[in-house]
Amino acid sequence: MARKQDFNEFFDEYPEDNYDRDLLIIRKIDEAITGSKTLDLSGKFYFNVNEKKISELPYSLERLTHLQSLNLSNNAFESLPESLGQLSQLKELNLSKNHLKSLPESIGQLSQLKELNLSYNSLTALPESLGQLRQLGALDLLQNSLRLLPESLGQLSQLRKLNLSNNQLTVIPVSLGRLAQLSELNLSYNQLIELPEWIGQLKNLNSLKLSHNMLSDLPISLTQLESLKELEL
Predict the structure, then answer these.
(1) Cα dist from 3 to 15, 67, 167, whole Å
(2) What's the longest Cα–Cα distance across the chain?
(3) pLDDT per position in the chain (233 positions), as tens?
(4) What class has domain 1-110?
(5) What does DSSP assign to residue 230?
(6) DSSP reduced 3-state for 69
């Protein structure tokens, strides 16, 4: 009986006309509550049952503090609750293919996060707290509406893969020159006019994609990238 009450608390805010969809979601929550470290609530999971996708998460999500992998891709989220930051053991978070316009500041509390997929959303800015994710190894921001990046991204000391393709960036912050572990950087399909000289500081970079920008020349410091194997112009 106690477990039934847990389910109701999680999804009592969803309307009855989504009953079949919610039954499937509750089964997934059941697995998570009983100890599973993975929770998949991606839109593809229940697409054949009901085409209406999730647009809100219950605030009681913070109860799943043991989760290590959370997939919320292919849904209709425009925002996320601050309670997301309570998932302190999370290592993988997939938020791709939603309608996110912003991220909660609490995302910086996910100190164990290693992979963050935010591709195919509507983000125009990122919170400074993102720089607190010191274990992050891969950050995917493909196909958003970013014009500026926070300087705090330079604090992501373990970052190896950074995808910023298909945004509206005109400049990239100097702090990114401190990403000593970065091996893949995708800046294609932006509005960059020039590439900064500090790009030469990324000694471990082996893939750099710059196509479809407005670059007229390249900095001499590119010759310092001795590990570079792929340069796409």
Answers:
(1) 21, 18, 44
(2) 68
(3) 333 334 344 444 444 445 445 445 555 555 555 567 888 888 765 544 445 677 777 655 677 888 999 999 999 999 998 989 999 999 999 999 999 999 999 999 999 999 999 999 999 999 999 999 999 999 999 999 999 999 999 999 999 999 999 999 999 999 999 999 999 999 999 999 999 999 999 999 999 999 999 998 999 999 999 999 999 99
(4) alpha beta
(5) E
(6) strand
| CA gap 147, 46 in Å, rounded | 34
CA 57 to chain centre: 17
What is the distance between the alpha carbons of residues 186 and 55, in angstroms, rounded to a whole number?
A: 30
Q: Is 51 exposed, middle or buried (0-12, 13-18, 19+ CB in 10 A)?
A: exposed
Contact 22, 50 (CB under 8 A): no
User: Would you say 68 and 89 are in contact if contact means Cβ atoms under 8 Å apart?
Assistant: yes
Q: What are phi and psi of 218, to 5 degrees?
A: -120, 150
For the chain, the domains span 1-110, 123-233
**Spatial CB neighbours of 19, under 8 Å, sequence gap ≥ 6:** none
Give the tokens for residue 176: 């990114």
- Beta-sheet strands, E only, within 69-145: 69-71, 92-94, 115-117, 138-140
- pTM over 0.90? The answer is no
CATH class of the domain comprising 123-233: alpha beta
Amino acid in the structure at residue 161: K
Rg (C-alpha) for the chain, rounded Å, is 20
Question: Is the CB of residue 113 less than 8 Å from the CB of residue 132?
Answer: no
Amino acid at 44: K
